[in-house]
Amino acid sequence: MTLPRIVATDLDGTLLTTAGTVSPRTSQALRTARAAGAEIVFVTARPPRGVLRVVGEDDGSGIAICSNGAIVYDLTTDEITASHPMDPETAAKVAEALARTLPGVGLAVETGRNVLAEAAYTRRVARDLAFYHEVDSVFDSDQPIVKLLAMSSEHTADEMYTVVSEAVGDLAEVTFSGVEGLLEISAAGVTKALTLDVLCRERGIGPDEVVAFGDMPNDVAVLLYAGAGYAMANAHPMVTAATEHRTLSNDEDGVAVVLERLFGP
């Protein structure tokens, strides 16, 4: 491929170590890529609030594609510059399909800034407790449905994905990113790849000028979009089956290894 103008990288399980940090080697590799003229774009399932706190001062400028493509977030200004929420009526139909296929499933909604959680949705992220709001129904609010979250303690995410994808069909995008028993559902057509493509077109950049990194099924679309999409050594089998390129694991600085080769002396 040509020298990349965009480095699109997932965070958890990819750029970040298991401890949830950016290693010194990876931080230096990002700076080297930027110095060579590449733009770093974080492409993540995380909401905006979960991005800035895990990238250091040197790494935390620029654009993040959050919530699996549903949000574009400017890290420098702390602004959401674009959003692609689900239509409430469609989300309600998806919820009906979830109830049929996964009785007892717990629902929550990521709004972009907060989480609306029903009683059956018992997952809580310690660092996000201040952002959770308990609701009788996620559909009682007029806040945007950036991402519908479905949790089951009785099934794995892989099991849920198989049955829910079939039940939902083309109503919405169904995926998962590593949390056991949790599905993430976005508006139809909304993926990391779709939003990255819009960003690239705005800059006059083609897919062949993009290098991407990921480890989970929600990364597959963006890895296939990029001129070179790298699956981490710790990637989900669905990712390795879909991609040609490989790198080392997140704890072995797999992203840095590739960036050093591409942008190093």
TrEMBL record:
Q: One cellular component GO annotation, for this chain's record?
A: cytosol
Superkingdom is Bacteria
What is the protein's given name?
Cof subfamily of IIB subfamily of haloacid dehalogenase superfamily/HAD-superfamily hydrolase, subfamily IIB
Gene3D superfamilies found in the cross-reference section: 3.30.1240.10, HAD superfamily/HAD-like
A GO molecular function term, named singly, is: magnesium ion binding
One Pfam assignment: Hydrolase_3
